Amino acid sequence: MNTINGMHVVVSTLAPEFVPVLQMAPCGCSEKVLAEFNAWLLERFGMRRHVLIMGGQIVMHPNTYAFFRKEMALGQESHSNGSSNA
Q1: Which of 9, 47, 51, 60 could in theory staple to 2 by disulfide, Cβ–Cβ 3.0 to 4.6 A?
Q2: What total number of domains does the chain contain?
Q3: Is residue 31 part of a domain?
């Protein structure tokens, strides 16, 4: 069973790997305006890894899970070596 900090992790290719950092929801403006504004937001702010916490579980894409496991291992190495990022 996959866990991160004691929470069960569901790894699924159905979960998106990346999502826009900011995105405007439909608000009554035309679809063209919405698409253009969201394209501008994407260009300006980029994407982030998608992690969903739902019902006491963490849901993420397999590549995101591998990224987190790698980052957690690096963090544990730095603590065991006595190094600090401060």
Answers
A1: 9
A2: 1
A3: yes
